[in-house]
Amino acid sequence: MAQLVRDVMTPAVAAVLPDASLVEAAQLMRAQDIGDVLVAEDGVLLGVVTDRDITLRAVADGVDPLAVSCRSVCTPEPVCVGPDEHISAAVTLMRTNAVRRLPVVENGTPVGVVSIGDLARAQDPDSALADISRARPSGLLR
Description:
By secondary structure, the protein is α+β, with helices and mostly antiparallel strands. Helix content is 37%, strand content 21%.
């Protein structure tokens, strides 16, 4: 059974520059079938923007998602976990901070993301959350 964050994280990092528009971030999320992107510059993590951030911090306020930067709606200085930390540390951080995803950072550089689904698959592969996390969407509504 996986014990370290590096064993369960998604190693590919989807990131945008701070000045990228929300449309750019949303398009990247759609293309990669993910719900968040890291906001980074020169290899330094500045924040995280989620599909929920775009919806609640921009669209719900009627702002133009082409004119708003990711920097302005992201969660700055997100809670992070290291790749060599035990997965129980990631679980504790998620619980304590009420987050569903954690950037994985090594020596100040983002190297992956670990989600609540990743942890469910690792700790309880037969759980409903693990099953849902393994499922692939059948397609986007158009």
